[in-house]
Amino acid sequence: MDRWYVVHSHAGAEANAARHLQRQDYPVYLPRWRKRRSHARRVEWIAAPLFPRYLFVRFDIERTRWRAIHSTVGVSHLISVGGGLPAPVPDGIVEVIRSREAENGLIEIVPHFRRGETVIVGEGPFLDQTGLFERMDDSERVTILLSLLGRDVRVKVPIHAIRAVA
User: Fold this and answer.
1) Is the pLDDT of residue 138 over 70?
2) Of the candidates 14, 20, 29, the residue with the CA atom closest to the CA atom of residue 68
3) Which helix (H) or strand (E) is 23 found in, with range?
4) Is residue 58 over pLDDT 80?
5) How far apart are CA 112 and CA 9, in angstroms?
6) To which CATH superfamily is domain 2-99 assigned?
7) Which fold is adopted by the domain 118-164?
8) I need a labelling partner for 107 at 20 to 30 A (CA). Which of 88, 138, 159, 160 fits?
């Protein structure tokens, strides 16, 4: 019976490993998400692996010559259990991940904060300010309540600019 297994790739080689596994006729799934990348005062959105260095491959352990996966370009090894056999992914996990893909094929990651939860701003003019999460306006902006100069002020900031206070 075909099952999904996890491949551990070399650093930054997920797509290369996926391509070479597909050339060997293995069904492969490399979930990706829309990631914000900042570099030299430039911000861009890229498609990045959801699980860096990991991807899924599907095969029947009884009928497939799966050991060849270990010598595939870009692959470090299959995630295995004690006896050296690859560990199957629990049924339904890959399907749940796939169900969260948007039309563009990328997984939508929406941080979940509860109303009243304390958050800290990690960039921009409100850097290092602590506030209370109020609401998410859309997929990119949130409203938080900051205490500035002795009064509470509602401000809108990009979702990627806040994080929960530990």
Assistant:
1) no
2) 20
3) helix 14-23
4) yes
5) 30
6) NusG, N-terminal domain (3.30.70.940)
7) SH3 type barrels. (2.30.30)
8) 88
